[in-house]
Design a protein that fits this description.
Elements: E1 3-5, H1 12-33, E2 86-87, E3 90-94, H2 101-106, E4 115-116, H3 118-130, E5 134-140, E6 146-153, E7 156-163, H4 170-173, H5 187-203, E8 210-218, E9 222-230, E10 236-243, H6 250-254, H7 276-292, E11 299-307, E12 313-321, E13 327-335, H8 342-347, H9 359-375, E14 382-390, E15 395-403, E16 409-416, H10 423-427, H11 440-452, E17 462-466, E18 472-478, E19 485-494, E20 498-510, E21 515-524, E22 527-536, E23 545-561, E24 564-583, E25 588-603, H12 605-608, E26 609-610, E27 621-622, H13 624-627, H14 629-632, E28 636-650, E29 661-675, E30 679-692, E31 696-709, E32 745-750, E33 776-780, E34 785-794, H15 799-803, E35 806-818, E36 827-828, E37 837-841, E38 846-849, E39 860-864, E40 870-875, E41 882-893, E42 896-907, E43 917-921
Parallel strand pairs: 3-6, 7-9, 10-12, 13-15, 16-18
Antiparallel strand pairs: 1-8, 2-4, 5-6, 8-9, 11-12, 14-15, 17-18, 19-20, 20-21, 21-22, 22-23, 23-24, 23-33, 24-25, 25-28, 26-27, 28-29, 29-30, 30-31, 31-34, 32-33, 32-40, 34-35, 35-41, 36-40, 37-38, 37-39, 41-42, 42-43
Length: 925
């Protein structure tokens, strides 16, 4: 099969007809301009002309040049060809395959027995070709009246093939193509499809893209249509030229635009791609900038985008006229509304007489006056700035006139677009109901509350429309629902938990009622958990939230010997919690809870217990020499029964991803309503968000907590707050440190010994210890108090990076955990009895054998293995702040939430574990 171009040569008959028409048109004017000799010329009025006919010129003689004093005789006029009329004797159609002869003839006006001429034949050709069923049509037998219409039918499309498209996939191009299998192929449709494909690529900034349509001939007059696409490079903006700017440089003005010149580092931004809509937007941005700088007469005279000859880049040129710079003249406010004090409003204006004119301040003032009017119930207040230009002194006086309008009440609330979410779920978030006085503050609060549900699109707005009367307003919201259910089956690797598997299903809008249902299963090398939770945000359609959680968690705590991580104690927690939320005011909520947990804490007997095989005279017991006294004290089973409450103050505009507002939480939990544990835990958290520097999100968060023991310790060396109830601090709370890398800890350091087992001393007689982290056992034991602070700046990226879910940020963290009773430390010096093998006879006689002996004497049983000489050191129990700085990236990856942080600890305390890079995958639930 050979590929042929879609557009073949023109038909021979049509070409001959066209040539004849052109030649006839060239001859006709000459014939009309000449008259036959002796004929009388007619006047415009149709009367015979009285002007004498000039005699014919004589031909030039041999010595006279042609045209000098004599004219050539005009040629005789060509007689007009009479239109010949003939009769059709027979009509025959040849070449048709799919169409019957009668069908082809029905498209023409030719009929047997009727007369025809050349014009009627031409019309028949035109009618047949206009059906787009035929690739070629000719008519024979014109002279005899036996008319034969020869047709060549357009082929049928077998399939459509796209080749060369990599940037735009088939599923994006195919819907734009009008040609389809089993349809008739026509060149006009092919040309239209080529234009549509090229337009798709131009929308992506690829102006060098080209499409070559080809056909592959098949049997039975079928074809495959092949669109060979050359995508070409993305057409970038190579240069932006600005002409006419005298007071601001090109770089300063380009920074105000959305378009950027192409640079190699703009890999995550599409701002350097040419976009005609963005070109118009940049003109408006330039005007806005100059109007904020006092240039009230600024205008863009022209904006031209030129494509380079290679069609790879654009060169944009702006011609601007800056005009004169103005200052503010007198700025006043007058109000026709009785509730608004004009003098008070004028004192709060941001501009003053003598300041450089700023149109943005004028717009903001109009908005603020409208909002102020909305607070008093005037939804459609009419604030009109009246300008007084003084061109001579270059001043611009402004008077803000607040026209009188009626007080407005809410007529109704219209909701549309919600297909899953029930109306009442949205309506109960409105702070205004039918009949309430209008308040712009309550409208903004309603918008924020609906947005915080997380059920709808971002940047949701509430419309304000005129009601049936001037004092009525209709509030409307068009929502666009987003997916609220999430099913996650993921596997990953975490620097905190090594290999992990996660299976979770969450529905935050269960059956459209706004209820949340979640179930989750996690498994990793160090933790396993099963959890189920349910929350009803409006119990019995009242503003009360009720929820419960059930869980079973199997956690293996660990410590480090250098970079080697080993399990210490295991904690299995089984329990649940019941929660009740009560709003006290619009911004203050009270949450009550009761929790019951059964903890089983164990140690590995093969590692931390003496006589693990039961061959000795005593049963296996936890050995402080192996585990440490603080671990031996924590093992056992206990029940924790606690009640608690939380007071929450929040003005966040979005609880999921806030960009402005504040949040303050005060929480207390009392353990001791039955059970085995008694304490009072208090935690305070606060955060503040600002939208600064054009969508840069800056936030500061502070938190702290303290646990007060309400029971006595088991011994003077134990802390009354159990190890599992204390605060721990490290990654990911304070970045730049390892998990539990901050705070009180016990390090076990090994003595250096010589060949005889004696301690190695330095020049001052002090014992030396084995160096290197691989020989130090490090256990974090937590504290009863902590504080943590964080300052973070989230950096906005281009549309492409936002689509990938990338949110980079830079941050600084500060914190500490402290306040634990100093534990009893152990010191097993070289040469002490504990460093020797303990052997016991049947009569109870105990004999110590050097480790070099390797075993006990005959008739003696091994009762204790030798202990490597060590000394325990207590470190980190200080409120001294630890400080780290760094940057990180959040990524909503296809396999789960991903976070990577690179942070450096600037301030640390002895014993702290620092870490430069940390990452976490798939555990953000």
């Amino acid at each position: 099969m050979n590929a042929h171009k879609v557009f073949p040569a023109a038909r021979r008959f049509s070409a001959a007809l066209l040539v004849g028409t052109i030649l006839g048109g060239m001859i006709a004017p000459a014939a009309v301009a000449q008259t036959a000799p002796g004929d009388a010329a007619q006047s415009p009025a149709g009367q015979e002309s009285t002007a004498p006919t000039p005699p014919p010129s004589q031909p030039a003689g041999p010595g006279q040049p042609r045209g000098a004093g004599a004219e050539l005789p005009p040629p005789p006029a060509a007689p007009a060809a009479p239109s010949v009329t003939r009769q059709i004797h027979s009509l025959t159609v040849t070449g048709s395959q799919r169409l019957e002869q009668e069908t082809v003839l029905s498209y023409t006006s030719l009929r047997v027995g009727e007369n025809y001429d050349d014009e009627k034949l031409d019309q028949a050709l035109h009618d047949l070709l206009s059906t787009e069923l035929f690739a070629d049509v000719t008519i024979a037998g014109v002279e005899t009246g036996d008319i034969v219409i020869r047709v060549r039918e357009n082929p049928v499309i077998n399939r459509i093939v796209l080749e060369g498209n990599h940037r735009i996939k088939d599923d994006k191009i195919t819907p734009e193509i009008r040609l389809a299998p089993r349809q008739i192929f026509t060149r006009s449709r092919a040309r239209a499809d080529v234009a549509r494909i090229i337009e798709l690529y131009r929308r992506q900034g690829r102006y060098a893209a080209s499409v070559d349509p080809q056909i592959v001939q098949l049997d039975q007059n079928r074809v495959d249509v092949v669109f060979v696409i050359n995508e070409g490079p993305r057409s970038r903006v190579r240069t932006i030229n600005i002409i006419g700017n005298e007071h601001f440089g090109d770089g300063r003005l380009i920074r105000e635009m959305a378009t950027r010149e192409h640079r190699w580092w703009n890999i995550f931004s599409s701002a350097d791609t040419y976009d005609p809509d963005r070109l118009a937007f940049d003109q408006q941005k330039l005007r806005q900038f100059y109007l904020t700088q006092g240039y009230a007469d600024f205008r863009v005279q022209s904006a031209v985008a030129e494509l380079t000859p290679d069609r790879r880049d654009f060169i944009i040129t702006y011609v601007i006229d800056e005009g004169q710079r103005y200052r503010f003249g007198p700025v006043t406010v007058d109000s026709d509304i009785r509730d608004l004090d004009a003098a008070s409003m004028q004192r709060r204006l941001p501009m003053h007489e003598g300041d450089w004119y700023n149109a943005k301040q004028v717009e903001d003032t109009v908005d603020s006056l409208n909002q102020l009017s909305g607070l008093f119930g005037y939804a459609f207040s009419d604030v009109r700035p009246q300008f007084h230009r003084d061109a001579e002194h270059r001043t611009m006086g402004v008077n803000f006139h607040v026209a009188e309008t009626p007080r407005v009440y809410v007529e109704r609330v219209d909701i549309s677009g919600n297909t899953t979410t029930r109306d009442k779920v949205i309506r109960r978030e409105f702070r205004l109901a039918e009949g309430d006085p209008f308040s712009s503050v309550q409208v903004r609060r309603s918008r924020d509350r609906i947005q915080s549900l997380g059920f709808f699109q971002d940047n949701l707005e509430i419309r304000q429309e005129q009601g049936t009367t001037p004092d009525r307003i209709v509030l409307g919201v068009d929502v666009q629902e987003r997916a609220t259910g999430q099913l996650q089956l993921s596997a990953g690797y975490s620097s905190l938990e090594r290999f992990l598997i996660n299976a979770a299903i969450t529905q935050r809008n269960f059956m459209g009622r706004g209820q949340e249902v979640r179930a989750q299963v996690n498994w990793s090398s160090y933790s396993k958990s099963v959890e189920f939770g349910f929350t009803e945000p409006y119990l019995f359609d009242r503003n009360l939230a009720l929820g419960f959680d059930l869980f079973r968690r199997d956690l293996n705590a660990f410590n480090f010997i250098g970079n080697s991580r080993q399990t210490t104690y295991g904690q299995i927690s089984t329990g649940g919690q019941v929660r009740l939320g009560v709003p006290l005011t619009e911004t203050i909520n009270l949450a009550l809870r009761y929790g019951l947990t059964y903890d089983q804490i164990t140690l590995n007997q093969n590692v931390y217990f003496s006589d693990p095989d039961g061959t000795g005279p005593l049963p296996p017991v936890c050995d402080p020499l192996l585990a440490g006294r603080y671990l031996c004290d924590v093992i056992g089973n206990r029940v924790t029964s606690s009640v608690g409450y939380s007071l929450l103050y929040s003005t966040l505009n979005n609880y999921i991803h806030p960009t402005r507002g504040a949040r303050l939480l005060f929480s207390q939990d009392f353990a001791g309503v039955g059970g085995d544990t008694r304490y009072l835990r208090t935690v305070v958290r606060g955060a503040k968000y600002w939208n600064v520097f054009n969508n840069f999100i800056f936030s500061i968060s502070l938190e702290g907590g303290y646990i007060r023991a309400l029971q006595k310790a088991d011994s003077p060396d134990d802390d009354p707050v159990r190890l599992t109830d204390r605060f721990f601090l490290g990654s990911p709370q304070i970045r730049g440190f390892d998990i539990r890398g901050v705070g009180p800890r016990i390090q076990r350091r090994q003595y250096q010994v010589d060949a005889d087992g004696n301690a190695v001393l330095d020049s001052n007689g002090n014992p030396l210890f084995v160096t290197g982290n691989n020989n130090i056992l490090d256990d974090a034991i937590g504290g009863r108090a902590y504080y943590l602070g964080r300052a973070e700046l989230e950096i906005p990226l281009g549309a492409g990076a936002r689509d990938l879910g990338l949110r980079p940020s830079i941050f600084a963290d500060i914190g500490a955990v402290f306040g634990v009773r100093r534990p009893a430390l152990q010191d097993v010096a070289p040469g002490s009895p504990l460093t020797q093998i303990e052997c016991t006879a049947a009569d109870g006689t105990v004999q110590l054998v050097p480790p070099s002996a390797g075993s006990c004497p005959t008739n003696f049983t091994l009762t204790r293995n030798p202990v490597t000489p060590f000394r325990e050191v207590f470190l980190g129990d200080t409120p001294r702040p630890r400080i780290s700085v760094g940057f990180g990236v959040n990524w909503n990856s296809p396999f789960g939430p991903f976070r990577i942080d690179i942070a450096r600890a600037l301030v640390s305390a002895p014993g702290d574990d620092t870490k430069l890079i940390t990452f976490n995958v798939g555990t953000a639930f």
